[in-house]
UniProtKB/TrEMBL annotation:
One BP term from GO: amino acid metabolic process
Classification via Pfam families: Aminotran_1_2
Protein name: Aminotransferase
Known EC number: 2.6.1.-
Family recorded in the similarity comment: Belongs to the class-I pyridoxal-phosphate-dependent aminotransferase family.
Domain called Aminotransferase class I/classII large: residue spans: 31-392
Catalytic reaction(s) noted: L-aspartate + 2-oxoglutarate = oxaloacetate + L-glutamate
Tagged with keyword Lipoprotein: no
Complexes and interactors: Homodimer.
GO molecular function per UniProt: L-aspartate:2-oxoglutarate aminotransferase activity; pyridoxal phosphate binding
Keywords: Aminotransferase, Pyridoxal phosphate, Transferase
Coiled coil residues, start to end: none
Cofactor(s) needed for function: pyridoxal 5'-phosphate
């Protein structure tokens, strides 16, 4: 009898976590490493949020809570959805979990049966296909490449839908490309979805607050109220509030789905950390003045990285609308060799050679379903980014 499950054999560990670990190991061994792999802001959690957590500890808010969240936080999430997204949810339609990741996972485990298909625009966040596989479903990646600025077209969506399609996962601004859909672009997709009533929409709005220039964030149930009854609107505090370690994600959706997700959570982790829930309440309902500051810092870094990478030989780097990632195309480097004789035949070899020869850690594109590319997380200081991009430029110039 095999010890490991058949399900696990279909799943790979997260490539982004693997790169981050490898960079940590090299740094611990004394190598001069710049990690551009991890998807987390370098800012500290704002002070008012940290203070709210300390108060929660001192007030004894240290026991189990309701599985899907304390009422105070659920009320704040309802208020947030109404104010920022024009979406009306009651507390029964809200669930709180251990990061955005658990929210998505709960929804997939609660709804997927063998044979159910989940449409995932590629490049995608590394975890989507593997979470679908773990939940017993079939991921259906649909590639949206450089020619459409990494955005899925309505024709592509229409062509991918079958009678077995259960979910369409939508992520804007996107990890790994930073691409954000305008209202018109999203409306064109929701028009397609309106013609297919069996398809549910999982909107992953994790990077809602990290948008640049005059880009206006929008989410499917807001753009097409006809989809409200079959949309799960997912979000969290990890990225916008610099709270990755606190592990708070949440969603709003139809009551039956939210209850089913609560059942999954009640038999796995129970409630997420009580202290973190009180901190998230402060994040959502306290002062929001640091958000424009974070945004401005990220926009400056985006401009720096896009400009410097476009000056690297063989690299084309589009300018994203949001998040803190860029996803440069390295077609111009494929087929060339490093001075050490390594032939760059794909983006994984490119990323490995880049790390070994320059100490810059990036995540190769194959992990996100579109090659040849790599992902840079620019959530680090301008100075570090300037040095990393200069090393990438020198590395590319050295290829023959
Ligand atoms: C698109 C997207 N969704 C969800 C998550 C999960 O966030 P959390 O840390 O809250 O689990 C991430 C984190 O990288 C992400 O990039």
């Amino acid at each position: 009898m095999a010890f490991l499950s058949d399900t696990l054999s279909r799943v790979k560990p997260s490539a982004t976590i693997a790169v981050t670990n490898k960079a940590r190991e090299l740094a611990a061994a004394g190598k001069d490493v710049i990690g551009l792999g991890a998807g987390e802001p370098d800012f500290d959690t704002p002070e008012n949020i940290r203070e709210a957590a300390k108060r929660a500890i001192d007030a004894g808010k240290t026991r189990y809570t309701a599985v899907d969240g304390i009422p105070e936080l659920k009320a704040a999430i309802c208020a947030k959805f109404l104010k920022e997204n024009g979406l009306t949810y009651t507390p029964q339609q809200i669930t709180v979990g251990t990061g955005g990741k658990q929210i998505l996972f709960n929804a997939l485990v609660a709804t997927l049966n063998p044979g159910d298909e989940v449409i995932i625009p590629a490049p995608y966040w590394v975890s989507y296909p593997d979470m679908v596989l773990l939940a017993g479903g079939t991921p259906v990646p649909v590639v949206a490449g450089l020619e459409t600025n990494f955005k899925l077209t309505p024709d592509q969506l229409e062509a991918a839908i079958t009678p077995k399609t259960k979910w369409f996962i939508f992520n804007s601004p996107s990890n790994p490309t930073g691409a954000g859909y305008t209202r018109d672009e999203l409306k064109a997709l929701t028009d397609v979805l309106m013609r297919h009533p069996q398809v549910w929409v999982m909107s992953d709005d994790m990077y809602e607050h990290l948008v640049f220039d005059d880009f206006q964030f929008c989410t499917p149930a807001q753009i097409e109220p006809g989809l409200y009854e079959r949309t799960l609107t997912c979000n969290g505090v990890s990225k916008a509030y610099a709270m990755t370690g606190w592990r708070i994600g949440y969603a709003g959706g139809p009551v039956a789905l939210i209850r089913a997700m609560g059942t999954v959570q009640s038999q796995s982790t129970s409630n997420t950390c009580s202290i973190s829930q009180w901190a998230a309440l402060e994040a959502l309902s306290g002062p929001q003045d640091f958000l424009p500051e974070f945004r401005a810092a990220f926009q400056k870094r985006r401009d720096l990285v896009v400009s410097m990478l476009n000056q690297a030989k063989g690299i084309t780097c589009p300018t994203p609308e949001g998040a803190f990632y860029v996803y440069p195309d390295i077609s111009g480097c494929i087929g060339k060799a490093t001075p050490g004789g390594v032939v760059i035949t794909n983006d994984e070899i490119f990323a490995t050679a880049l790390l070994e020869e320059t100490g810059v850690a990036v995540v190769f594109g194959a992990a996100f379903g579109l090659s040849p590319n790599f992902r840079v997380s620019y959530a680090t200081s301008d100075e570090v980014l300037r040095e990393a991009c200069a090393r990438i430029q020198r590395f590319c110039a050295s290829l023959v």
